[in-house]
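User: I'm writing a tutorial on reading structure tokens. Could you give me a worked example: one chain, its sequence, then its tokens, then a sentence or two explaining what the tokens reveal?
Assistant: Sure. Here is the example chain.
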Amino acid sequence: MWVREFRQQEIRFDVNPRFRDWEPMYRVSRAALARLLAASEPELDALFEETRPIQAALRAEAGPLPSAGALIQAPLLYIAVRRLRPQWVIETGISSGYSARLILEALARNGSGRLDSIGIDVFALAASTGGVAPELAGRRVGWLVPERLHAFWTLHLGRSEEVLPKLAGGDPVDVFLHDSLHQYPTMLAEYEWAFSQFATGGWLFSHDVHANRAWPDFLSRHSVAGDEEMDHDLGAVRVPAHP
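And here are its predicted structure tokens:
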């Protein structure tokens, strides 16, 4: 329990069972994803099959390296982005770029869309242990995103409260993912910012929805219903159009 749950930021990718084999995680989340995405389970199964070569590539690239706070549920985001075909995705909190990689693989498969990733240039591993593992020396956040996906991607180094206001007022945001600082003020502020950009409706995803009351408080404040929880405290909800 200590190794698998409480020291996630210190273990290698391949030590985490959710990284080694994506199928059990997908099977646990399949029904919730189908409800959220208004899709049939066989439709989602076909999208999951697309992830197998991506997993093989990532095992070769990242398997023996520290996960450094990666959002291990990222394969579920691939399925969501393939199904929803968003034009603009924003994620807060980036470390290795594992979630960014899965989102970008989906956007590339869709043939359109862009991802803005926001985070500080410090691995979660360094914050939790006081230093970066030797295997990560010289690597920057987002190192798992290959050059071939950069056309769909913009990396912003900074805190979300500094970067998000600069992104406001443009195209509508279709998908927003919170995975930065899991504290009530930060989580609620990010949810509220995303809500302000969802005038035509959108999908909000959040890691650590049980870390505090930010998630239920946000849903209650705006009377947003129908949220789903997938695998390990990854929450998601469709935010309807609003004035």
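What the tokens reveal: Residues 22-37 form the longest helix (16 residues). Residues 164 and 229 are 25 Å apart (CA to CA).
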